[in-house]
Amino acid sequence: MLDKFKPTWMVNSIYAVSPAQLKERGIRAVFSDLDNTLIAWNNPDGTPELREWMTTLQEAGIPLIVISNNSKDRVAKATANLDLPFVSRSLKPLSFGINRARTKLGLKKGEVVMVGDQLMTDMVAANEAGVRSILVKPLLNTDKWDTRINRFFERIVWRELRKKYPQLQWQEDLND
Question: Which of 48-52, 100-104, 116-120 has the highest mean pLDDT?
Fold first, then answer.
């Protein structure tokens, strides 16, 4: 039961994960949640660190695709300045959005990674899709109202996960 919440890796910030680290693990595409993972939920412009990371991925030939539960209009508006492809209404924690993007790219399950800041949606969706995952710390300590509900239940799941998997620790990058 707890395995469906377990991330493959836990990294403080996705910006510290290099294309070389991804390629070493056979990862050819990065799927990412949007709010509080790539951008702060209240800042659609992103940060210089995000733009630099996106550039390094692009130069390495690793596509970055947003997988979001938000509406098409909301995701399009939030990613407009970033020029990122996306799957909206992905229905996380179900695997539909991840599977749709992976199939469109013609990649195997082992060739993609899902990045997100929530156990209840992002990590469960990744595990349901059979892809590896990177849990990151939220960019902000505040969330939209609907995410706060997930965070409440997430704290309960975290306690149990840490009991069952004491090796789960935050890392600086995938090689840490």
Answer: 100-104
